[in-house]
Amino acid sequence: MENLFLHYMHERVRREEEETKPEPGPVITISREYGCYGSEIGEKLAEKLNAEKNITKDKEWVFVSHQVLHDASEALEAKPNEISHIFGAEQKNMFGDLVSLFSKDKYISDIQIKRTIAQIVRSYSEQGNAIIIGRAGCVLAKHISRSVHVRLIAPHTWRVNVIKKRFNITTNEATNLVNETDKRRETFMEFYRGNKPDSELFDLILNRSKLTNDEIVEQIYTLAKTRKLF
Q: Of 31, 92, 108, 171, which is most buried, counting CB atoms within 10 Å of its CB?
């Protein structure tokens, strides 16, 4: 009888906690093809949203990008450059794994890194008022109803020119960098989304080569307002 009573009480507490738990979000995720930089969009969008918020009631909007890398490295007790390859650099090969295994006290696998990233991104998205740039946010925050998921795209040639100017490299070097980074980012995304097409992931797809930063921010802002994210 005592065990039944304890079980009942535990279930009651669990249900009450679920009922009082605040709804996760809101969150905005911005995915982007390589060369369609999203941080400046995230910064401008956060500024615009914060200008509209109720100072006494609303939590401040923040944009999250590189912070995920730093949080993951702290959680894994590693240096950021030891796990940054996950976001787009080459995956470690078998030889690289063996070197890591025998040269460090603590071996960290790519799968372990990706799972840690997932926990961190979900945490940011569920806490709310977050604009998450990349980091598979479109998949990891898909369960949140108060959300907007955006994809920034541009023609391959346009992206090559952006990378060429940014890093002061040749057209061939920029082309190779874009192609290789696209492949690596796709590998990163496949771990989280499987074979889901973009049509299932995004609410809004915007052409970076056709729109100004302000126009992109306005489009996202309008959809977020329509969906009552603020």
A: 31
Longest dimension (CA), the chain: 77
Q: What is the pLDDT of residues 39-72, one digit of tens each?
A: 999 999 999 999 976 654 668 999 999 999 999 9
Q: CATH number for the domain including 72?
A: 3.40.50.300
**Could you tell me the residue range of the domain that residue 73 belongs to?**
25-226
- Residue 88: how many other CB atoms lie within 10 Å: 17
Token reading at 31: 């995915």
Tell me the chain's radius of gyration from C-alpha atoms: 21
Residue in the block written with tokens 């802002």: 221
Q: Structural domain tally of the chain?
A: 1
Give CA angle at 124 (118, 126), nearest 5°: 95
Helices (H), 151-195: 156-167, 171-193
Q: pLDDT of 95-110, one tens digit each?
A: 444 344 344 455 678 8
Up-side HSE of residue 33: CA atoms within 13 Å toward CB? 20
Q: 185 with 200: CB under 8 angstroms? A: no
Q: Which residues contact 217 (CB under 8 A, 6 or more apart)?
A: 41, 44, 45, 48
Nearest in space to 149 (alpha carbons), one of 194, 74, 200 = 200
